[in-house]
Fold this sequence. Notes:
Layout: H1 3-9, H2 12-34, H3 38-48, H4 56-61, H5 64-98, H6 104-122, H7 128-137, H8 148-167, H9 169-176
Helix pairs in contact: 2-5, 2-6, 2-8, 2-9, 5-6
Amino acid sequence: MTLSNFIYKLNWRLMLLHLIAYWFLFQSFDYFGVCYDYHFRIDFINHHSFSGHITDDEFRKINVDELRRVLNDNVISNTIPVVSLLITLGLSLTISIRKKWYWVNAIFVFVVAFSLLVLWRLLKIKIGPWTYMRYIFRMPGYFFRGTMWYFITDGSVLLFIGLILIFWKRIVVFINGVKNSPLAAQ
């Protein structure tokens, strides 16, 4: 395969929409991950009244069972983003193969999304648009603020939007580049 043929098979519409879908699905899994052992986390924070950083005296007050549970929760919380990206890669590859789109598009989007995850989580770089748009997508959960239902509601909304961006018929027509598509530029 020549380079020009490879570039011709890349679909910028698919890559852009699937990258946005990756982000929504990643955020929804992140919200659902907070629900894992939610009550212990809240009770733990309230019981020990941490103010951000743990001092040596506060650390000594934590018993071994609590410490194991906190470490287990942290492992789960840090594994969820990677698992969400892998699940979304599976969805993206499945739809790409079923619709006879070039499968490298899905791999390329996964690499970009994983790079953004590394920048966001490990290097603590704030990603511009989400910093401001997240307040819009958190609106449904504000009715349940302070409870686990806040995270379940917001995660469900984000999951729904992400799945629509991957599977909705109009989006598929737009990705195919059909001229009569309602989403296509006139």
